[in-house]
Design goal:
Layout: E1 3-7, H1 9-14, E2 26-30, H2 31-40, H3 45-62, E3 71-72, E4 78-82, H4 100-114, E5 119-123, H5 127-135, E6 139-141, E7 157-162, H6 164-170, E8 175-176, E9 188-194, E10 201-206, E11 210-213, H7 229-239, E12 245-250, H8 256-270, E13 276-280, H9 297-318, H10 321-328, H11 330-333, H12 348-357, E14 361-364, E15 377-381, H13 389-396, E16 404-409, H14 427-434, E17 441-446, H15 453-461
Parallel strand pairs: 1-2, 1-5, 2-4, 5-6, 7-9, 12-16, 12-17, 13-14, 13-15, 15-16
Antiparallel strand pairs: 3-4, 8-11, 9-10, 10-11
Length: 462
């Protein structure tokens, strides 16, 4: 049965292509939403980009008809911009009718009263608007098309039991799976316990056809040794150049950043497997915004990129200065800098500055990624839970030949400062679920907090 779906501005910003996802229903965009998009398009960062994309999508449809009368969509539905239905007689006293949110509610309420044979639904991601809509007896829903059930989110591993004979087979050519073994996804890890020998257990991986042992089980990376089971799994994915996309979820202190950065440093600086490290992070402050920052692009981004330096500093504690200076000389052999050996790497700032000057380390925000092709690069996308699914797609389509992408973040609601996504609809969990079936992708959810005993009890208790 055909319905009227009235879209709030935040839905268009969350996913600019949402107008194509309502099947054969009527999509109605209040003119106020276009005004809000017009105001938001000039903003820097994620919101401005998404607003501009939403405007482009609507404009793409405009060429096929009249937006006032309604334009047929490929899905069978229609799209129209609503200019009328602004009569406020049905709105209760006490509502500020100058607010755009309340104007959208007014339009929805009037369309509902006029279209009695067609159900009218307001689609919004604004909780307060949803509460007010229900109070007005309007049917309201969140945008559901890209939501992930967090209880069923793919973890990247499972625990199984096998016989001693089957475990031995894993280390002698791999274990072919059958219905008794279970169903596994490519690059899914298996924590295996032996049901006929309690002391016999191992960690293995399904490679798409067989259960095989880990390739990098005993590797130390840039002085870093994994501290728990999930970190060993993560390191296995990060070190494997045949896996082009790795996603890591986990709370604060579980090791997402330091594992990714340690592998990036080893792969780029020591092994020359990739030409550069590109570290991407959203310029979204946690809590109160600090306002305008003076200086160059690099200076403006520094407060948001300090987490990269913190990870390098932690790694440098385990890796002596002499080792760091010795590996830095490899940059000379690559012809990256002629004055590089004149400096000694006594500080993390010197270390990062020299590699940035040589073009080996780049630090960027999402805003600088459009139009780029990232080839032969180890790309780390930090705080990926701040991305919308649309922006996640934009980032991953930057992948060129010979690149590896690593998306890391904590998708819990208390770690998301972008009002247009939540724990169920952010770009990180969207990518995890959509790409889990491919042999060139891998995922692990990290559970154990290893940063410090204090960080562990804070994560568990607060």
């Amino acid at each position: 049965m055909v319905k009227n779906y009235i879209l709030d501005t935040n839905v268009l910003i969350h996913y600019p292509g949402c107008i194509y996802t309502f099947e054969d229903n009527n999509i109605i965009i209040p003119i106020i939403c276009l005004e809000e998009l017009d105001n938001l398009k000039k903003k820097d960062g994620i919101i401005g980009y998404q607003a501009r994309e939403a405007i482009r999508e609507i404009n793409n449809v405009r060429q096929f008809g009249d937006l006032h009368k309604g334009i047929k969509l490929p899905s069978g539905g229609s799209l129209r911009v609503e200019l009328n239905h602004m009569n406020t007689d049905n709105m209760p006293d006490g509502m500020d009718l100058n607010k755009n949110d309340n104007k959208i509610l007014t339009i929805a309420l009037n369309i509902k009263k006029e279209s009695k044979k067609i159900q009218t639904v307001l689609v919004t991601k604004d909780i307060c608007v949803a509460i007010k809509a229900e109070s007005l007896k309007l049917k309201v829903q969140d945008y559901e098309n890209d939501k992930t059930n967090m209880d069923l989110l793919y973890k990247g591993y499972q625990e199984i039991s096998l016989s001693s004979e089957q475990i031995n087979q894993i280390y002698h050519g791999g274990l072919e799976i059958n219905q008794e073994s279970g169903h596994f996804l490519p690059n899914e890890f298996l924590s295996i316990k032996c049901f006929d020998n309690n002391s016999h257990e191992t960690l293995a991986k399904f490679n798409g056809s067989k259960i095989v042992p880990l390739k990098y089980a005993n590797d130390k990376v840039w002085g870093l040794t994994p501290r728990n089971r999930e970190q060993r799994m993560a390191l296995e994915l990060l070190l494997d150049d045949e896996i082009n996309l790795v996603t890591l979820c986990g709370g604060a202190g579980t090791g997402k950043s330091i594992l990714s950065i340690s592998v990036a440093l080893q792969k780029v600086i020591e092994n020359n497997s990739y030409n550069k490290i590109i570290y991407v992070k959203p310029a979204v402050p946690a809590g109160e915004a600090i306002g305008f920052l003076p200086g160059s692009e690099e200076e403006k981004l520094k407060p948001f990129m300090d987490s990269f330096g913190d990870a390098v500093e932690s790694l440098m504690v385990d890796k002596s200065k002499s080792q760091a200076i010795e590996t830095s000389d490899k940059l000379l052999k690559k012809g990256k800098s002629t004055s590089f050996s004149d400096k000694k790497l006594f500080t993390v700032e010197d270390f990062l500055e020299q590699y940035r000057d040589a073009g080996v380390i780049e630090m960027k925000t999402f805003a600088f990624m459009r139009g780029r092709t990232l080839s032969s690069a180890f790309v780390i996308i930090d705080e990926a839970q701040e991305m919308t699914p649309h922006l996640a797609k934009l980032m991953l389509t930057r992948a060129g030949q010979g690149s590896k992408f690593v998306m890391i973040g904590d998708p819990s609601d208390n770690q998301i400062d972008n009002v247009f996504v939540d724990s169920k609809s952010n770009g990180l969990v969207y990518v995890v679920e959509k790409l889990k079936n491919y042999e060139i992708t891998g995922h692990v959810t990290l559970e154990e907090v290893e940063r410090s005993p204090l960080a562990r009890i804070i994560e568990d208790s607060l």
